[in-house]
Design a protein that fits this description.
Elements (H helix, E strand, L loop, with lengths): L1 H14 L15 H6 L1 E8 L2 E2 L6 E5 L4 E5 L4 E8 L5 E3 L3 E2 L7 H13 L2 E5 L2 E5 L5 E7 L1
Antiparallel strand pairs: 1-2, 1-3, 1-10, 3-4, 4-5, 5-6, 5-7, 8-9, 9-10
């Protein structure tokens, strides 16, 4: 009887010594959509470098809104993204202060209209036109 009881309790006691190991489960969220969200310092627009470190674009993925700043005025509006990393910006609204560097703001406003897609290349976010040419490049802030 004692041996029978021990043989029944042994597997239970042995099972109590097992340490569970967490196994990561695949995510149903597209990594590209998550990665687009947040702030990016704009380093290039319209094929030329951006001289100010204040130039940035921020994506709010949940509300599909964007805002761009150059250190003086802000551009803002909605955007749509879809399959295959397509990206389109709606017409931007803007604050209207007189700024010392209006050229950068105008260049950004013009190049936002050209964007049709985005991709990630190393640490860079690259927004491209219909030909796949980079029109805006940025790095995560």
């Amino acid at each position: 009887m004692k041996n029978k009881l021990l043989s029944l309790l042994f597997p239970v006691l042995l099972g109590a010594c097992v340490v569970p190991i967490p196994v990561p489960l695949p995510s149903n969220t597209a990594p590209a959509a998550q990665a687009l969200d947040g702030a990016w310092q704009i380093t290039e627009a319209g094929g030329r470098p951006i001289s100010t470190e204040d130039a940035a674009i921020r994506f709010n993925q949940a509300d599909k809104l964007y805002s761009v700043t150059t250190g003086c005025n802000n551009l803002f509006g909605g955007y749509t993204d879809g399959t295959n990393n397509t990206l389109r910006f709606e017409e931007a609204a803007s604050t209207l202060m007189a700024c010392p560097d209006m050229e950068t703001e105008q260049r950004l406003a013009n190049t936002l209209r050209e964007v049709r897609a985005y991709r990630f290349k190393g640490k860079y976010l690259e927004m491209t036109d219909t030909r796949g040419t980079i029109v805006i490049r940025g790095v995560r802030k």
